[in-house]
From TrEMBL:
Domain F-box: 1-45
Keyword field: Ubl conjugation pathway
Organism field: Tinamus guttatus
GO cellular component, one term: cytoplasm
Alphabetized SUPFAM superfamilies for the sequence: F-box domain, Galactose-binding domain-like
Biological processes annotated in GO: ERAD pathway; glycoprotein catabolic process; SCF-dependent proteasomal ubiquitin-dependent protein catabolic process
Annotated GO MF terms: ubiquitin protein ligase activity
Pfam families on file: F-box-like (PF12937), FBA (PF04300)
Segments forming domain FBA: 66-247
Protein name, UniProt field: F-box only protein 6
């Protein structure tokens, strides 16, 4: 196999999973290490997996990292749409009549723009907040990648009110160091929705970029309450939350 032309070897090795290329093939010999490190091999893998478009050619400085980020990209929030009850969520505040799960559109509510979303979490007259802590290393994002490349971290969340009751929505997302020191934070002013609103679902989003080195965790918290203190579940509704890390 060492007698094969370089372009043939690139084509063959590009068929292998990235993990095998980096952990095994690259260690075989000097020639294989050279081929595994070639830009053409990783660009070919991007083409095979549908990550490559002609318009990207001049904007990608490192096709290996670009491929890895595309391969890893997914929603890091677990159970974002209440399909597994409250699994994976920590209920930080659970006041009033407590958090509850309802099916869309819910009483005096509206359907989500995404028809795949079937459920949502709803708050009560007391403050209700829930959170998740994402450990980046456990999700495949190694320390050097986060420190040197600092890929964009995109936060999205959807919220809505009932037609007949006012409510408040809040969100906090923090990028944390290994020692849980806050390196950067997204904490906008709470959104207050008045009674007799249109009950439409709205998306809030934020992108972290050029953040400090040392990010090891992402802490996501959201929730709120109704503003009229009615017994039951008249507070803010939330669903379809996401954290994605992109190239």
């Amino acid at each position: 196999i060492s007698d094969l032309p370089e372009d043939v070897l690139v084509e063959l090795l590009s068929l292998l999973p990235a993990r095998d290329l980096l952990r095994a093939c690259r260690l075989v010999c000097t020639q294989w290490r050279y081929v595994v490190d070639l830009t053409t091999l990783w660009k070919r893998k991007c083409q095979r997996d549908g990550f490559h478009t002609q318009s990207l050619d001049r904007s990608i400085s490192d096709w290996k990292i670009f491929y890895m980020l595309c391969k890893l990209k997914r929603n890091l929030i677990k159970n974002p749409c209440a399909e597994e009850s409250f699994q994976h969520w920590k209920l930080d505040n659970n006041e009033g009549d407590r958090w509850r799960i309802e099916e869309l559109p819910g009483p005096l509510g509206r359907e989500m723009p995404d028809p795949k979303v079937q459920k949502y979490f709803v708050t009560s007259f007391g403050l209700c907040l829930k959170s998740q802590l994402i450990t980046l290393k456990n999700e495949g994002y190694w320390n050097e990648l986060m420190d040197e490349k600092r890929p964009e971290i995109v936060i999205k969340d959807w919220y809505a009110a009932r037609f007949d009751c006012g409510c408040r929505y809040e969100i906090t997302v923090r990028l944390l160091s290994e020692d849980y020191i806050v390196l950067e934070e997204f904490h906008p002013e709470p959104v207050v929705i008045e009674q007799w609103s249109d009950a439409m679902w709205r998306e809030i989003s934020h992108t972290f970029h050029n953040y400090p080195a040392g990010v090891r965790y992402i802490w996501f918290q959201h929730g709120g309450q109704d503003t009229q203190f009615w017994a039951g579940w008249y507070g803010i509704r939330v669903t379809n939350s996401s954290i994605t890390i992109g190239p």
